[in-house]
Automatic annotation (TrEMBL):
Keywords, alphabetical: Membrane, Transmembrane, Transmembrane helix
Top-level lineage group: Eukaryota
Pfam families: Sulfate_transp (PF00916)
Protein known as: Solute carrier family 26 member 3
Annotated source species: Opsanus beta
Limits of the SLC26A/SulP transporter domain: 1-115
Amino acid sequence: SGVSTGLVAVLQGLAYCLLASLPAWYGLFSAFFPVVIYFFLGTSRHISVGPFPVLCLMIGSVVTRIVPDEGAALNITGFEGLTRDDQRVLVASSVTFLAGIMQLAMGILQVGFIVM
């Protein structure tokens, strides 16, 4: 059962990476590293960690807006010398890091009362 679950997670990671407009091999990272980190830091045996399709679509829309496909040229400072895939990975990781910082700040400020 562990092997079949691992295979499904790898295939889902590859598909979600394509939803986020990123190169497919980053899906392998998104299927492997969250599980390893949760193995050491997690507390529940019944939780699913990894990428989610809606989140991948949202990140993909930001990535394709900032780094469009071939044919559309934008004047973006800081992307000189990077390939299109590297630019997209940089944008996706920046958005993800910024969302994590915001989530950490809201946790420190105890903003959870809004959802209660």
